[in-house]
TrEMBL record:
InterPro entries hit by this protein: Amidase, Amidase_CS, Amidase_dom, AS_sf
PROSITE patterns: AMIDASES
The protein's name: Indoleacetamide hydrolase
Residues in Amidase domain copies: 27-429
Function statement: Hydrolyzes indole-3-acetamide (IAM) into indole-3-acetic acid (IAA).
One Pfam assignment: Amidase
SUPFAM superfamilies recorded: Amidase signature (AS) enzymes
Entry-linked Gene3D superfamilies: Amidase signature (AS) domain
């Protein structure tokens, strides 16, 4: 089988072929390393590659399968890990120059769970500096497999690009204001921010402890569900897709935003028409609190991030990218009353979203109001929503939220975001699985 075709196989097909003997983890990991080498540094998606360790683990996985030891669907599957997550014995660089890369003593808990399930860590992925929305000029942004002249998004851009480019079928990202879902949309793949706390963040360098989430990026909802099962330590079982009776609420603040490009707005209309034709019940939902979600998120993320970075800032402020440094300083200046007011609003917003989800099964929004730009947009200030238009609210509330492909604007992917009830990640993924099947919108990049 051609290398490219192997690179784009899903987890379930890889697992089946491992077990019928037509492929082995050794071959798949070897092809992944070859494809990675061919596409780097054009994508600039990788922070650190582990070829010897990955091949050793692939040989071990293959030997276990031959001996009848089967660890489950992720056994022998190569994965990539965002470079703010500890991988035992490997450097963590945070895409920064504040400190030299730190060698992790232990695996982060989520990495340990992946290893226990037989997954093979292939590499650490590039990101925006400390996941704070800015590419360090010494490192640069990750480029989009659909158009390397454009960004793959942030902050989990490297994790998204490697999945979209057919190097790994699964990767782990983090999401504090959309950092899984935004790159997923730009790269035309699936990105899930689970319910707050469902996936452990021990061993993940924090950005904002009350907003941080870790979760999967994949090329299908089914693959994302398999990875979530492992990361969360909870069985996620999907049924065959069906839109019959699925109640979808269009979040009016997001869907009617003037920031949507004409192509995104038209794609949204086309999506709704398709879903209604196939049996979904679609209606518009107005949640007034959404208009303040991102401005209030900034009043939480800035002081929390600055407290986390206090020692680093004292140690080597010049090691930051200038814009990252400006954000860290700005957080020190955030009034305590603004932070407390935002926390009070956070509880109100959570209640408002959960109340609306009593009447619909999922909320639907455009994932991002535009396709992938040339460079990562700046962290917007009050009065602008930008790429976080639809994503930030779910970090504030903790609701599970997923981006799936919804179409193309020329050669650039577009995505829709689906948000479900707190703690009901399996139901959200079931709805996303059904919508994904109805849209059939995945496009493989030509890179």
């Amino acid at each position: 089988m051609p290398e490219d075709d192997i690179g784009f196989l899903g987890v379930e097909e890889l697992a089946a072929r491992y077990r019928n003997g037509s492929l082995s983890p050794v071959e798949v990991v070897s092809r992944a390393l070859e494809r990675l080498e061919a596409l780097e540094p054009r994508l600039n998606a990788v922070a650190h590659v582990m070829p010897e360790e990955a091949m050793r683990d692939a040989e071990h996985a293959a030997a276990e399968l031959r001996a009848g030891k089967d660890r489950g669907p992720l056994h022998g599957i190569p994965v990539a890990i965002k470079d703010i997550i500890g991988v035992r014995g490997m450097p963590t660089g945070f895409a920064s120059r504040v400190r030299k890369p730190v060698i992790a003593v232990d695996d982060a808990l989520l990495v340990a769970r992946l290893r226990a399930a037989g997954a093979i860590v292939l590499c650490k992925t590039n990101l925006l500096e400390y996941a704070y929305g800015i590419a360090h000029p010494d490192i640069g942004q990750t480029n989009n497999p659909h158009d390397p002249a454009r960004t793959s998004g942030g902050s989990s851009g490297g994790s998204a690009a490697l999945v979209a480019a057919g190097i790994v079928p699964l990767s782990v990202g983090t999401d504090t204001g959309g950092s899984i879902r935004i790159p997923a949309s730009y790269c035309g793949i699936v990105g899930l921010k689970p319910s707050y706390g469902l996936v452990p963040t021990e061993g993940v360098f924090p950005l904002s402890w009350s907003l941080d989430h870790a979760g999967p990026l994949a090329r299908s909802v089914a693959d994302a569900a398999l990875m979530l099962s492992c990361l969360a330590g909870r069985d996620i079982a999907l049924s065959p897709p069906s839109l019959s009776g699925l109640r979808i609420g269009l979040a009016s603040y997001h869907c009617d935003s003037p920031e949507l490009t004409p192509a995104v707005a038209q794609n949204l209309r086309d999506v709704v028409a398709t879903l209604e034709t196939k049996g979904a019940i679609v209606r518009t939902i107005d949640i007034p609190e959404l208009s303040r979600a991102n401005s209030m998120l900034r009043h939480i993320i800035k002081p929390e991030a600055s407290l986390i970075h206090a020692d680093l800032h004292l140690e080597n402020p010049r090691g930051y990218a200038p814009r990252t440094l400006a954000q860290v300083i700005s957080g020190f200046e955030t009034p305590a009353v603004d932070y407390l007011r935002a926390q009070r609003f956070q509880a109100k917003l959570r209640q408002a979203v959960e109340a609306c989800l009593a009447d619909v099964d999922v909320l639907l929004s455009p994932s991002v109001p535009f396709p992938a730009p040339v460079e990562d947009p700046e962290f917007t200030e009050d009065g602008e929503e930008g790429e976080m238009l639809a994503s930030g609210f779910a970090n504030m509330t903790g609701h599970p939220s997923v981006s799936i492909p919804s179409g193309m604007d020329g050669h650039l992917p577009l995505g829709i975001q689906l948000t479900g009830r707190l703690g009901e990640d399996e139901k959200l993924l079931q709805g996303a699985h059904s919508i994904e099947a109805a849209l059939g919108a995945y496009h493989r990049p030509v890179i």
